[in-house]
Structure formats: C-alpha cells, structure tokens
Amino acid sequence: MEVLIPYKVDAEKIRMERARLNLNKNQVAEKIGETRFVISSIENEKYKAVKLNVLEKLARFYNLKLEDLLKKEER
Which domains are delineated in the chain? Predict the structure, then answer.
C-alpha cells in the first residue's frame, strides 16, 4: 500500500541539499532507486502529494529527519 504525504514538501530544501552535495538529479535518483523524473517533479513542486517511501529515502540519503523535508508552516 502506497502512503502519500498530504503536507507540502520543502522543495527548496531538497534542491539545496542536492546542491550542497554537488550532485545532479540523475545521481540522486540513482542513489535512492528512483527516476530523475521523480526527483525533478519533487524539486519543481509538480506533485500534490509525495509517496512517503520516497521522502524517507531522500531524508536518509541527505541524513535528515523526514520532517526536515516538509515546509515549516505545515509541521
């Protein structure tokens, strides 16, 4: 069963973490087992809801808590 996060993802924070590590979207996608399209869609806020497992993978990869990837006013 897929779980979607109803909160707004902090796309800017996700982009900044990727830039901090000097990685491109393809590299991040490969590291977490997703597609470049998924990473790009999250960073460009194209999704209304993001799969929980994808956010968990991003949080682990960036060594952050899941809540760090959500917009502050939504927490």
Answer: 4-68 (1.10.260.40)
